[in-house]
């Protein structure tokens, strides 16, 4: 048994439907691709990888990709073929265990396909230095890694030379000024190590702002509307709808009725 998929290409930014039918609850967030790398402490992963990805990611192509965690384990999925292009908004849909997270890990260069090829701008992922790949991708995930410091410190983390005013401008542009303003001291709200000081939903928004500020070529949101309150959910959906993001947006979800602004849907399903 493995996961197969269907790809729906829908009209880009079809007319808005009611989002009140959305019944997902939201989970907290945020982990940069670099951080995943540090956490997994993967060494020597660049051996034999000669290419550096030195320009924006414009295309990502999966060609008959299959993956299994170990040779004695069954395939998670097989024969995935699809491509993403700059500007695509992709919904990655599937039940628990169908391989959504695994697919993201392949995208981040954490795993290599067992079969088939995955390429970025026409270059095989297996020959691209993983860090040059990950620098271009942002992940806002279910686990929150905010550090001790202010909300502003957390947003500016890892952003070379960006200033407070750049953050304020972006927050304004995203329509999040009021939302951030409701935190006790706005951008200067202190976050403790265990993220106390902000809620899970607020942490998710902070991670999201950080990813937007970094202008990554690929932005992956893992369950962005799980585990946050109604207002935060509406805020996230509103910002995603606004189309400001110009790169490849990939949103993982079990179910997202009403999220009709995607132009591609990859639906992973278990097949016997
Ligand atoms: N490190 C691992 N080693 C072995 N098998 C794994 C590993 N991680 C995941 N799997 C298996 O791969 C399959 C896909 O898992 P994955 O986490 O990608 O699913 P998912 O679609 O993200 O699920 P969820 O909706 O629960 O997040 C599952 O059968 C899972 O048990
Ligand atoms: Mg998952």
Automatic annotation (TrEMBL):
One of its GO terms (molecular function) is ABC-type oligopeptide transporter activity. The keyword ATP-binding applies. It holds the Pfam family ABC_tran. It comes from the Bacteria. Keywords: ATP-binding, Nucleotide-binding. Residues 60-272 form the ABC transporter domain. Gene3D superfamilies: P-loop containing nucleotide triphosphate hydrolases (3.40.50.300). InterPro entries: AAA+_ATPase (IPR003593), ABC_transporter-like_ATP-bd (IPR003439), P-loop_NTPase (IPR027417), Type_1_exporter (IPR039421). The keyword S-adenosyl-L-methionine does not apply. PANTHER family: ATP-BINDING CASSETTE SUB-FAMILY B MEMBER 10, MITOCHONDRIAL (PTHR43394:SF1), ATP-DEPENDENT PERMEASE MDL1, MITOCHONDRIAL (PTHR43394). This is ABC transporter domain-containing protein.
